[in-house]
Amino acid sequence: MAKPHAFTVYYVKKARNHRWRCSDVTFWCVDEQLCNQWIQALKELLELQKARPKQLLVYINPYGGKRQGKRIYEQKVAPLFSLASISTDVFITERANHAKDNLFEVNINKYDGVVCVGGDGMFSEVMHGLIGRMQKDSGIDQNNPKAPLVQCNIRIGIIPAGSTDCICYSTVGISDPVTSALHIIVGDSQPLDVSSVHHNNTFLKYTVSLLGYGFYGDILKDSEKKRWMGPMRYDYSGFKTFLSHHCYEGTISFQPAKHTLGSPRDKDSCRTGCHICRQSEQQLAEQRKKCGLKHEEDEEEWKVIKGKFLAINVVNMSCACPRSPKGLSPAAHLADGSADLILVRKCSRFDFLRYLVRHTNQDDQFDFSFVDVYRVKSFQFTSKLLEDNESDVTDIGKKHFGRFCRDHPACCCNIANSTWNCDGETLDSSAIEVRVHCQLMKLFARGIEENCKEASRNQSRVEQLL
Ligand SMILES: Nc1ncnc2c1ncn2[C@@H]1O[C@H](COP(=O)(O)OP(=O)(O)OP(=O)(O)O)[C@@H](O)[C@H]1O
Ligand SMILES: CCCCCCCCCCCCC/C=C/[C@@H](O)[C@H](CO)NC(C)=O
Ligand SMILES: [Ca+2]
């Protein structure tokens, strides 16, 4: 060959819609020494990139989504990791909670991060393993709802291979295994709020995306029986649940999030390097310093709302996903220490359909008289059924005369409880206490990057301001 000395540089190429691809360019050189100098200099520069992982622990759920997790990892992700000189220990799960249990046993300090290949449920499992392990090692009792949880600095990377993949979509902007693998390789870091869910001083679960009662809880409960249908189960159960049009009665109490500048009705969304998240985190840290060990939350006001609801959704992030690209709460922030509480009160089937359709178009889904949205830092819910039982009003009639409201048989109010959908997993209790923990964990992601259209719109706003 006339030009025998060469080296190839692999790099990330940004494509449309937040998709990243790996591209390469080969440099040729007649002078061998010069070529080697370049290779050496590039290797040294790469060594300086301390945020990049070298050793990863990978969990694959072979049964998530369309059961393609193993194939996706082997064909699309593993070759990229090896190109980037990342060593991996790969663990293919054999049962639910396998990954979570394993995380309590492994020598976690050996790894720069944990990767989960699967959907939201699989991510939730890995997150529970990591956060749980962190608290155990630090002697924190997870059953205490007020315990100050220890931050988890080991990043999690999500390779989407599930049915909804909402956590991946809401933090990267797309559900694409190659894009996610590249975010892991370049060592991105995105802090994430996590909410803890308790019942009577007993820890139930953590949640990062949707905690939903009523509509989304009923969909999940029904769809779990139809896992064999794959991702289609959500469409089938969604349609069935929509037709059943059940509403549920209960009491909601919440503490508004006063530390953050943002509001759920903002027009701008959380984007890479979000200033609202940064400012909110600083504000909370200052409050904590001032209050010391005293719980400042105890002194803050609680708002109480009673009513009949078709859906009660608490979201820590937008919950954008391919079905709803702007999500359940488009202006929710990934790391601002707050969650958006969305209350959909009893309304007609037609109005509820109008509300749902707005998740798929540009119209404002909160602009309805029967929808309320609040930004909160803690939240509690008790169903009417439980309140009645607890206040010793033993209305035997309600228990014996069917599950529906006896006074108004046509009103679709369900006397039975709904189920909580917690990041795609059901909860055993309907009465819950929720608390947002600001930036409790980190992902190999950078949040959604502003696209050119948004960037130029914001730029022209700045120009106007100047
Ligand atoms: N080997 C396994 N066998 C059975 N269940 C498993 C296994 N490994 C993990 N799981 C469980 O499967 C559940 C669902 O997995 P996953 O989230 O990957 O897919 P999905 O439910 O199809 O997607 P999504 O959560 O995005 O809707 C998780 O809760 C996880 O605990
Ligand atoms: C007639 C048009 C109806 C369109 C309705 C679109 C609304 C879709 C919104 C989906 C949001 C999903 C939030 C994410 C939840 C996940 O945690 C969970 C587990 O993966 N998925 C589901 C479906 O519960
Ligand atoms: Ca948040």
Automatic annotation (TrEMBL):
Q: What superkingdom does the record give?
A: Eukaryota
Q: Does the entry feature the keyword Transferase, yes or no?
A: yes
The protein's matches in Pfam families, at most eight in alphabetical order, are given as: CERK_C, DAGK_cat, PH_CERK
Keyword check for Transferase, yes or no: yes
Using the record for this protein, list the coiled-coil segments as residue ranges, or answer none: none
- Which keywords, in A-to-Z order, does the entry hold? Kinase, Transferase
Report what the protein is called.
Answer: Ceramide kinase isoform X2
